[in-house]
Automatic annotation (TrEMBL):
Occurrences of domain NADPH-dependent FMN reductase-like (ranges): 3-147
GO MF assignments: FMN binding; oxidoreductase activity
Protein name (record): NADPH-dependent FMN reductase
GO cellular component: cytosol
Pfam family, one: FMN_red
InterPro entries from the UniProt entry: Flavoprotein-like_sf (IPR029039), FMN_Rdtase-like_dom (IPR005025), NAD(P)H-dep_reductase (IPR050712)
Length: 208
């Protein structure tokens, strides 16, 4: 059985993105073990001379390392990902590289009609950055709009159409994880680049 880490990309107490990830955890329990992981509590990213990384970030990195893939649930704030999620990804690329070549599925909810579409597009760009180099499921977006009305009292999606769409994307992700496991040529190069990267002399990520 596959093991996935699902990152809640917000610190909002009542988040429909968290609700969606918990719904996936329950719905796909026969296909994968999904651990919903909170990012709240992480400090805002700050570069230090001693490359200090908060223990919470290291713990999340260890969970990602031990997983077969990652699911990220992101809301959209001002047409972009939340500062918490951006900061967390900065910590996860600061001397550690748990997302490198890791299969990632992106989902998102919003109170309006767009379903975090711009945030998802931005998140794809971030995950493709040289310091992260995640492998994102292509041509797939799960955009859940009007999310405050989307779930019933049991935490299940009310719309059969939305559930079926999510089912199809999750099945694709399961296949995608198996496929990316076979693509190991670039992985070796990425590992070598990560091992020799210097934050003082590196050609990417110098502003961190």
């Amino acid at each position: 059985m596959k093991k996935f880490v699902a990152l809640v990309g917000t610190n909002t107490v009542k988040s429909t993105n968290r609700e969606l990830l918990k719904y996936m955890q329950k719905r796909y329990a026969d296909d994968a073990e999904i651990e919903v992981v909170e990012l709240k509590g992480l400090p805002i990213f700050k570069k230090s001379e001693d490359l200090f990384i908060p223990q919470q970030a290291r713990d999340i990195a260890d969970k990602i390392d031990a997983s077969d893939g990652v699911i990220i649930g992101t809301p959209e704030y001002d047409h972009s990902v939340p500062a918490l999620l951006s900061s967390a990804l900065a910590w996860l690329s600061y001397g550690i590289h748990p997302l490198m070549d890791k299969p990632v599925m992106i989902v998102g909810t919003s109170y309006g009609t767009l379903g975090a579409s711009r945030a998802q597009a931005q998140l794809r760009q971030i995950l493709d950055s040289p310091e992260l180099k995640a492998t994102v499921l292509p041509s797939s977006e799960f955009l859940l709009g009007h999310s405050l009305q989307a779930f019933d009292d049991n935490g299940d999606l009310k719309s059969a159409t939305e559930s079926q769409k999510l089912d199809g994307l999750f099945d694709d992700f399961l296949d995608f994880v198996d496929l990316t496991d076979q693509l190991d040529h670039s992985k070796k190069l990425h590992e070598q680049q990560a091992a020799t990267f210097s934050w003082d002399n590196g050609t990417t990520g110098d502003d961190k």
